[in-house]
Amino acid sequence: MPLDINSALNFAQVLSEALPYIQQFQGKTIVIKYGGNAMTEENLKSSFARDIVLLKTVGINPVVVHGGGPQIGNLLEKLNIKSEFINGMRVTTSETMDVVEMVLGGLVNKEIVTLINQHGGKAVGLTGKDGRLIHAKKMKIKTISPDLQKSEIVDIGHVGEVEKVDPNVLQMLIKGDIIPVVAPIGVGHDGASYNINADLVAGKIAECLQAEKLILLTNISGLQDKQGNVLTGLSTGEVDALIEDGTIYGGMLPKIRCALDAVNNGVTSSHIIDGRVSHATLLEVFSNEGVGTLITNHKQAES
Q1: Which residues fall within 8 angstroms of residue 238, CB to CB, at 6 or more apart?
Q2: How far, in Å, CA of 139 to CA of 209, rounded?
Q3: Helix/strand/coil (H, E, C) string of the chain?
Q4: Residues 279, 276: Cα–Cα separation, whole Å
Q5: With contact defined as beta carbons under 8 Å apart, do 153 and 138 qualify?
Q6: What's the confidence (pLDDT) of residue 222?
Q7: In angstroms, rounded to a whole number, what is the distance separating the alpha carbons of residues 15 and 23?
Q8: For the segment 44-83, what is each residue's pLDDT rounded down to a tens digit?
Q9: Are 221 and 209 in contact (CB under 8 A)?
Q10: Helix/strand/coil for 82
C-alpha cells in the first residue's frame, strides 16, 4: 500500500505538537474523574483505557476515580429495590449501600482495571476503604418545606462527604509504576461505608496529591456562557463572576465548585471536558486546542 504523505505529515505534526506537553508533565500526577458516556459506550471505554496507558507510558502518573450511578440504578431495579432521590442525591439505606459497594467496588472498578491492563497498563483497583484512603462523614442535606416557611435537615443514609484523604496507599502504587483506579466509597469513624460523589473524591485526591491537573469527564462540551458558547481558559476569579451573574447554575454548580476548590488548594489546573469525544483526555493534555474548559488560579488564564 503506497504511503499517504499527507496522512504521514499530519501524524508527525500531532506527535511534534505533543512533545512539549510530554516534557512538561513527565513525573507529574493527573487525577481523572471517569464517568458519563465515556464509561458506558464500548468504543469510548476502550479509547479511555488506551489514553490512560499512554499517559503512564510517557512518564505521567494518572489516577482514575470513577462513578457508576447508572450501573447502580440498573442493579437496584433488577433486585426490585426502589431508588429514591432528594435534591439529586440517592437515598442510600444499608441495603442500597450493599449494592453500591458491589457495583462500584466490584463490577465497575474491575472492568476499568481489566480494560487498562488489556491495553498494556498495570492497574490496581481499590475503594476509599482500602489503606484508610478516604475518611468519610455522613452528609445531611437541607431541604425547604412545601410551605416555604422553614428548612429541615434530611438524613439520606449512607451518603458521605470526604473528611480526609490519606495518600500513602496511592503514593505507594504510583511509585511502583501502578495506575490506581479508585471507587468513591469512604469509611466513617464508626466503620460504616459511605457512597461519595465521584467528582468530590477526585477533587480531594487531586488536592492531597498536589496534582498537576484534575480532569472531570462530562457529557457536555464544557462550561458554556449564556449564548451557549464553550468557555475555554478561565481564571478562578472569572468563574466566581460567572456563578455570581447566574451563568453557572443548577447541576453544573457542584462540579464547578469541585474544580475551583482543587485549583484554590494547590492543583495547577482543573479541566471540565467532553467525555463523548474519543481520546478526550489525550486531546486535553497533549494538544493546543483541548476539548473543554480549563480553569487555573492565574489572573489571566491560558487558553
Answers
A1: 301
A2: 24
A3: CCCCHHHHHHHHHHHHHHHHHHHHHCCCEEEEEECHHHHCCHHHHHHHHHHHHHHHHCCCEEEEEECCHHHHHHHHHHCCCCCCEECCEECECHHHHHHHHHHHHHHHHHHHHHHHHHCCCCEEEEECCHHHCEEEEEEEEEEECCCCCCEEEEEEEEEEEEEEECCHHHHHHHHCCCEEEEECEEECCCCCEEECCHHHHHHHHHHHHCCCEEEEEECCCCCECCCCCECCEEEHHHHHHHHHCCCCCCCHHHHHHHHHHHHHCCCCEEEEEECCCCCHHHHHHHCCCCCEEEEECCCCCCC
A4: 9
A5: no
A6: 77
A7: 12
A8: 999 999 999 999 999 999 999 999 988 998 999 999 998 8
A9: no
A10: coil
**pLDDT tens column, 260-273:** 999 999 999 999 99
Copy the grid coordinates of residue 291: 476539548
> Is beta strand 134-144 parallel, antiparallel or unpaired with respect to 85-86?
unpaired
Residues in contact with 247: Cβ distance below 8 Å, sequence separation at least 6, in sequence order: 225, 226
Top-confidence range, 60-64, 129-133, 218-222 = 60-64
Q: Please give the grid coordinates belonging to residue 190.
A: 464508626
Strand partners, 235: 296
